[in-house]
Amino acid sequence: MVAPREPKQDRSRATRQRLLEATIESLAEQGWGPTTVGHVAERAGVSRGATQHHFPTREDLITAALDYMFDTRMGDAVAEEGDLPTGAERTEAVVARLVEYYTGPMFKAALQVWTAASSDPDLRARVLPLEDKFGRAAHRTAVRHLGVDDADPRTHRLVQATLDLARGLGLADVLSDDSRRRGEIVKAWAAVLDASLPIHGRT
Questions:
Q1: Which of 1, 53, 104, 161 yields a CA-CA distance of 20 to 30 A from 175?
Q2: Is the model's pLDDT at 148 over the cut of 70?
Q3: Alpha helices in the chain (DSSP H)
């Protein structure tokens, strides 16, 4: 009995996803230079022609990978919300989770693109809207997980400071394992938030 053929649209979607994931892995592991269309195609097991059918240029491939990466990370954040503890431990858990956004392979991949974009005006023009999109989504996620009112200017600034802190800790982790110091900072900042914000229904 012959197995039914996979619909063309599904095959195309699967090919596109393999290319995007291979791009992210290559950026995180090997950096900007080696992450060419040809290298990604080979890594994903896709012909160069098929790759260029989906992504005509390297810039198209890279920016699509960033968009996919951001959407995946934010989707994971929504799915993980139910795993966060309630009560006094929640703030530290939320801060730790936000820091994880900036210390994993996805952040390392994005950092490679940001660095390249800093000296490439065309790439920068493509990347800035994606960075803005991720920043807004990360802020909304932090507000929701912390359970605070972002309409309050002071609360808004403290949530943004939390994300800025997370990004800084992510940068500190790029060259060496900074997990021990990072854990201490997460705990200290969570205490600041608990003392400063009306969290968990506390006024």
A1: 161
A2: yes
A3: 8-30, 37-44, 48-54, 58-80, 90-101, 105-117, 121-146, 153-172, 179-196
